C-alpha cells in the first residue's frame, strides 16, 4: 500500500495534481476540480491536527469496525459519503486551491509520522500514523482518479 509519508509517493501525488487544469471534469461526483482540491486540503487539516470535526453517531457506532477501508488496498467506492464539514459546495479558485493543497501535502510529508494528529478521525476513530499515511494517500488517489489523473 502506498503511503504519503514515502517521498516517492508524495512526489507522484504532487505530479498528478500538476496535471489537473481548471477544465478538468469529474468522472463521478458533484464537486468541480477546485472544490475537490479544497476538500482534499480540508482533509489534510484534519490529519495535521488543524481541524477537529466532531464524531457523528454512526462513526462512533461502527467506525472502528470498518476503519480498514480507510487504509487497505481496496479503492474507495466512487461516490462514498464524506465528512459533512469538508463537503465543499461554494465556488473556489483553482490555482489558489491547487497550491494550498500541494503545500499542505509537502508539510505533512516533511513533518513525518511523528507529527501526525492523535485526534480521532471523525468517522473511523483512533488511527495510527501509519494508518493516516496510507489513508491520506488513498484519499488523494481516489480524488485524483475522479478527475482522470
TrEMBL record:
Superkingdom of source: Bacteria
InterPro entries, sorted: DinB/YfiT-like, DUF1569
Organism: Gracilibacillus salitolerans
A Pfam family this chain is assigned to: DUF1569
Protein name, UniProt field: DUF1569 domain-containing protein
